[in-house]
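Notes to self after the Tuesday call (sharing in case useful).
The group wants a holo model before anyone commits to mutagenesis around the pocket. I volunteered. Ligand is pyridoxal-5'-phosphate. Logging inputs and output together so the record is complete.
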Amino acid sequence: MKFICRKPGEKSIEIIKRDQKVISQSLTREYSFVFKMAKGCHVWDVDNRKYLDFGAGVAVVNIGHNNPVIKKAMLKQIKYGVHCGFSDFYAEVPVRFSEYLVSFMPNKELNNVFLSNSGTEAIEAGLKLAKWHTSKKYVIAFENSFHGRTMGSLSLTKSKPVQRERFGPFLPVRHVPYPYYYRMKMDKEECSNYCLDELEKEIKKLKDDLAGLFIEPIQGEGGYVVPPKSFVKGVRKLCNEHNVLLCDDEVQAGCYRTGKFLGIENFDVKPDVVCLSKSIGGGIPIGVTIANKSLMDWPAGSHANTMGGNLLACATGIESLRYMKEKRLGENAIRVGKHMLKRLNEIKDKFEIIGDVRGIGLMIGIEIVKDKKNRLANAEDRSKILCNASEKGLILLPAGKSVIRICPPLTLNKGQADLGIDILEDAIKDAKEVA
Ligand SMILES: Cc1ncc(COP(=O)(O)O)c(C=O)c1O
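Result:
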């Protein structure tokens, strides 16, 4: 049996063996952590080892693991029923969830909600809506983007070749460069202008057949890439000038991860369509697509699903949103995120393999490179660091070619942040000693 890093504990081994027999191995396990339980910013494996969690179940538990408000909301809803068949019948809880959710939107035009179960479904709904509303065929997405893995959203996704290999043909999507200026070896503004020029050319080519454009305000899976403000503003301007729907993928950046409720608010841009998922349900699956009522003009039967509007998901969604707002988790994300960025930048100066540290709030990426000058991706050392960190009790995730992604629960405090960074620094030192 092959283990990804160290040999895990006996109970972990037993479960990994069973997993390898019965579970599709198309998943992306980076190391051998076997979940037993979680609370707040900590997780435990089945061999009872405790870890500080800088991954939050892939940016899902913004309100912390196993938050009591979720348990309470579930227990309350279970008394009445968990599923109502919302595509065919009416119910108050999904309506209340949607009413509450639209009050978080930066512009009141975003007032109509389509409910689903995951990020990819939220994107599918946005994609189909853009096509239906405009009656046009093409959409634009960005190089290095990740929007999901079902065939529509996968047509937009272009972050890793393995995600697309053998799955074509795809829907009509044109990909244009995203300002990953660190990798493109350009200065910020030069890169922003170059990408906007490329985008404009493509928009002009597709002129009469372009339904919409999908953008992650900060690229997630692609490597936690923060674009220049001028770029996101420029995208909005081009969409306005050419009558293109700006569809904002907030699946990873949304729900206060970057301080603001929507990541795109950091760039002073208002989208036409918003897709959210991951953290809204506090760990229970839910996806939402939000647009203006006049845009959601598709007729009955044109788009629906069985589980969307699930009562349990909507009940937990309300409490998750309320918790994030009342506990001001956005402000905490900014405060703790700034502190982490400062410390990580200090660490960057000590190691030749740390090429870049970037992020907003608690969405932080560390680019691991061969050396600072050549900036070549260094996936090997990145893996070693992730493994070392897990052995020392810190859960981290990868992103992009060789980025370490930091996306802890937004409840993380400064002390926990410091402890995690100390472990990370040790893990980097050890990776270099092993090399
Ligand atoms: C920006 C973004 N969009 C869409 C998705 C797809 O979400 P899901 O995995 O829930 O289908 C993800 C998942 O990581 C994501 O990060």
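Two things stood out.
Residues 118-120, 123, 146-148, 216, 220-221, 249, 251-252, 277 surround pyridoxal-5'-phosphate (CB under 6 Å).
Residues 10-63+329-431 form a domain with the Aspartate Aminotransferase, domain 1 fold (CATH 3.90.1150.10).
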